[in-house]
Amino acid sequence: MSLAALTITELRKQLTAGEITPVQIIDDIEKAILANDSEINAYLSYDFDKARAMAANTDLTLPLGGIPIGIKDNINTLGEPCTCASQFLVDSYVSPYDATVITKLKAAGAIPLGRMNMDEFAMGSTTGNSSIKPTNNPHDLERVPGGSSGGSAAAVAANSAIATLGSDTGGSIRQPASHCGIVGLKPSYGRVSRYGLIAFASSLDQIGPCTRSVADAALILNAISGSDEMDSTSLEVETPDFTLNLDEGVAGLKLGIPKEYFTEGMDPAVREVVTTAIDKLKSAGAEIIDISLPHTEYAVATYYIIAPAEASSNLSRFDGIRYGNRAEQSGNLIDLYKDSRSAGFGSEVKRRIILGTYALSSGYDHQYYNKAQKVRTLIRQDFTQAFEKVDAILTPVSPHTAPKHGENSDDPLKEYLEDICTIAANLAGIPGISVPAGKDNSDMPVGLQILGPHLGEEVVLKVAQKLEDII
Amino acid sequence: MSKDHIDVNYVANLARLNLTEEESSTFQRQIEDILGYINKLEELDIDDIEPTAHAAPVYDRVREDEVKPSLKRDAFLDIAPDTINDQLKVPKVIEEL
């Protein structure tokens, strides 16, 4: 069996027993990429020589010693491209530094290997907004892998990566994980440093792992968590060992089912898989409690003010002056900005910048941005109140399984509404995980989402582990 | 929220974007749709609610003001689109009277 198809946990056993070497893992990843990535398009670039050189010096006693990890192409890794799948950065930008998560992965012995495809600047839920190439779902190439971390999820599902990092602003780790049938974890806001993650919406973005198992997600979370003086929004809290309590089970845990997440428009097959998974957790000893998160229906509207507003500000740095591609022969400075940005950004990015600029513009900021921030408070309060009654919350990840390519491409609002189950967690800053729960009639994967209170990753992982064990 | 008309070309200029005619008509329609949906927030009475700017509020986080090495200037000049004399080159900014 290809080493590229194993879990981190299994590979670590074989590495520390001296049965395999890190270079053999890299060899198998290379073989897998050559065999299937021309169909999947999960990778934007990779450098096997560099990875093999790192592998030669890796310390196998470290927790992730010798494990190659794919990196979403919006996370800076020294000396590597970081395109955000945008023409603005293609062929010109090479990272001058390591993001904190990369520094931490390297310190834990991991080997960053490969740059994973994504929706341009992480804006989208299909990876179809990549300006370089669309990624295909390994379970059905005619379907999308989800997004925006579509390459990160698809490579793990296609056995061309052991594990990857993604980023999640409104579901961009959990939703592709669900669509590709893998584990995807969005940590609590502030758990993981965002330094070196090219910002989309700073108050929502969080980096997290895409893996084959819950234990692997816990291992990576161990490595990347922690306070960082380079990110003032990272929290000064202890990082527990997230692998320690995984097998505690769910007996006695109270798990809430919010009725608002089971919408009328949801695919009956998704409903059935999710309901069955909930029943199994009940059989495993969990107490299932019906709850209400009454402001859920306002989450999409709130998010599509706040995220584009922050994006319009963050993306103002792409002006053609300091990095990226500059338009040729522009007359004056303003024209240079406009020409460079107009040539560099794709439609979805332009659409969100315009929406966000409008929401922040004089005379409209009170109607839109400030109002959305107030509704955000109500959404947070919903969760605070719910977690007084329950230990974790179970929901679908997406109302549907992976759609075919281009299904909603001319109707952005319809695509945005599909984010209904994932974005409230970002607005509230709480952790969430997608765990494979089953498949629909077309054999497409369905994930179950487990949400926990802020900094409650341990309970989220514990429930996820149980689900993985019993499915 | 009012149903104020968005002029995408005006806003695009604020955001330093040029739009083709096709982009401007498509975005006009799509963004009007999105704003129409966002007006849903009008249903809520939120006058007395405190806004949330960050999911995990942290205020006034400071560190010791120590001199530390930073990235070398060349690391940034190497990735700049155009440089001259170790500086970023831009079109003339000051206009003649």
Lay out the secondary structure.
The complex is a heterodimer of chains A (471) and B (97).
Chain A: H1 8-16, H2 22-40, E1 43-45, H3 48-56, E2 68-72, H4 100-107, E3 111-116, H5 150-157, E4 164-168, H6 174-180, E5 183-186, E6 206-211, H7 214-224, E7 254-258, H8 268-283, E8 287-291, H9 299-314, H10 333-344, H11 347-360, H12 366-389, E9 392-396, H13 412-417, H14 423-428, E10 432-439, E11 445-451, H15 457-470
Helix pairs in contact in A: 2-3, 9-11, 9-12
Chain B: H1 8-14, H2 21-38, H3 73-77, E1 83-84, E2 87-88
Antiparallel strand pairs in B: 1-2
Helix content of chain A: 25-40%
The oligomerization state is heterodimer
Taken as a percent bin, the fraction of beta residues of chain A is 5-15%
Question: How far is it from the N-terminal to the C-terminal residue of chain A, by CA?
Answer: 23 Å
As a whole number of angstroms, the C-alpha radius of gyration of chain A is 21 Å
List the chains of the largest interface with their residue counts: A-B, 77 and 52 residues
Show unreliable segments of chain A.
none
- Reading off the top of the CATH hierarchy, the class of the domain at 8-43 in chain B is best stated as Mainly Alpha
Number of DSSP helical runs of chain B: 3
Question: How many E strands of chain A?
Answer: 11
Query: In CATH, what is the homologous superfamily of the domain at 3-224 in chain A?
Result: Amidase signature (AS) domain
